[in-house]
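User: Please go through the entry that follows and flag anything odd:
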Amino acid sequence: MNKSSKITIAAILVIGVFSISILATPAFAEWDKTNYPKIQGTIPADNSEQKDTIALSVAMAVGENSVSDGKAVYGKLTDVNEFLVYKVVVITDNHAYYKILVDAGNGEALYVSDMIKKGDHKKTSDKKYSDKSKKYFKGMSDEQIAEKKRQFKEMGDVFRSLSLQDRAALILHFMQMKLQWDGMSEDEKAEKRLEMKAMFEEYLPLTVEEKKQKLQTYIQSLN
């Protein structure tokens, strides 16, 4: 498998898992609009070397241990109140979620939101998410839409069934891919979108076990 193919396959998996199947889009969209308490971290945000930060997998583990149930499905190193923190999203089985800030230095959970249930999101975020869904499902019958939603749910279930380390590895790779995407021309992005859409549609109908095996094989190839 060449480098270009790896990037394309990873993009398909990530787009399916992160943007649709785990239903966490509103959580990501509202990150920067959240009013956090005045947290006190251990690493100043102007620490450009960032050598002493904990691993993403550790921050995700802290996030999971900070709530009663759920799987960490997203994490990002950033700064809040001028301190380096990991923003972690933990999704529950019923698609509610928590937003958690983890100190990037000592791994302490600095902030844990209340459980945010589906339907609690702001209307603007819901509308944007709904518009994207309508565009994707346009022209499909009710039966086709139901089947697609079932396949998306399977992808989310498969992703959450991965080990925490594997989930972290895929998230980190997604971040690297995003940097590559930001450097592409508009024509390159348009071509890549068509490739991703075609391969994503090929991936969806696979069985749960086939989805899981393919995802694990790909993650192993990143090492």
